[in-house]
Amino acid sequence: MTSPLPRPLRPSLRPSPAQSLPPAISIPTRFRDLQGHWAAPYVEALASRNLIKGYGDGTYRPDEAINRAQFAALVAASYGTIPFSKAAVAFVDVPPTLWAASAINLAQQRGFVGGYPDQTYRPDQAMARVQAMVAVATGLKLPAAPANALGIFRDRAQIPSYAIDALATATQQGLVVNYPDPALLRPLEPITRAEVAVLIYQGLVALEQAPSLDSGNASTPPVVVQPRTTQGSFPDIQNHWAKDFVQGLLNENLIRGYDDGQFYPDRPMTRAQFAALLDKAFTLTPRRPGLQFRDVPPNYWGASAIQAAYRAGYLSGFPDQTFGPENSMVRAQSWVALVNGVPLMPNQTGNLTLLNRYSDRDKIPAYALDAVAKAPDWAWWSTSPMPASLTPAGWPAGPIFRQWYTKPWCCSRACPPINSPYIVRP
């Protein structure tokens, strides 16, 4: 698994007091603490089917977190028509005497839930929002959806990599429940009893076993996220010269932003991050044996991507058998990596006269001259915001790398071309 760029401390993404919220809706309810609650229509709909119950004091306690045992019980009761698809697993912490043992077994065999590597289920652990939504989308075996469906969420960078495909499906199928802010997913927070009621009901809608409550109409508040067909964007690239390139890769789910919804386009990139992006964008076919770098232990987050990029010929290490994973990737190194890794002209020498247009030509390292000379032939890189300067020892700021990255990626896959004045051409 590759890692996104390091994440800064993120500001609170919860709505400010001044932000307008959807109005509370009042409908008749059997639970005394649900009057005017945003989830009341969904809770009532499930209660009328005897799928959920309240407490002995007449409350539902909508804002309480639900644990994994309670979630399994609700899933098993609600989706009884789903056939078994998994072999039974004997969880070591789910004895036959546990109140939810039968429900956990049913939910597991139907493909909704699983356990942990130590063969535990952890029934008393709070169920995270992302886990619940992935469970329903996976268990119902809903049609796959493009990952760019997740672009509507400002905090999409917090989505674990394992959950991307299933959560995209959940979004497209109308399973995602975000209240009060539809653009705030909060994937790692515990799911509440109110949220899980909406999620389970929407699963029944997807199965055509329940009518849609038309979230957002006169009697139901807007809590179900409505999918859209275009990918979101980052607010801090809107006036940036590399916007089209960043957006292009975002649309292909090849890049992610930070937890606060920003991209920070001018931050430097490390060599490990560079390797991780190469590994995600390209099919890295091995061309040489691997090499164990002294400063890349097997448990390093980018170890697998670094090895893949090295074996494919994109990246190499240093004479002392180090890779420098936390070092900033300089522009000259990135040019060499892309030219070496995508062998479109392996036996052709670059045209060095093309470099005479640059005022700092003499600063190009000798090892990089041929690669830098080849790159303009393919219109692979940019010198923006300084057209007459290469700055070969500078950092490949995010969008500059991504622009170099987009062109060779287009050579290896189908992608729409971007006609930009910032691309250097021969």
Number of domains: 2
Mean pLDDT, rounded to whole units? 77
**Distance separating the two termini:** 38 Å
Question: What percentage of residues falls in helices of 4 or more residues?
Answer: 25-40%
Assembly form of the protein: single chain
Would you summarize the structure shown here?
With 426 residues, the chain is mainly α. The chain has 12 helices and no strands.
Notes on the protein architecture:
The structure is a single chain. By secondary structure, this protein is mostly helical. The protein has 2 domains: 40-206, no CATH class; 235-412, no CATH class. The chain has helices at residues 40-47, 68-78, 101-109, 129-139, 164-172, 193-206, 243-251, 271-281, 303-311, 331-341, 369-374, 398-412. It starts with 39 loop residues before the first helix and ends in a 14-residue tail after the last helix. Residues 1-26, 215-221, 377-384 and 392-414 have low confidence and may be disordered.
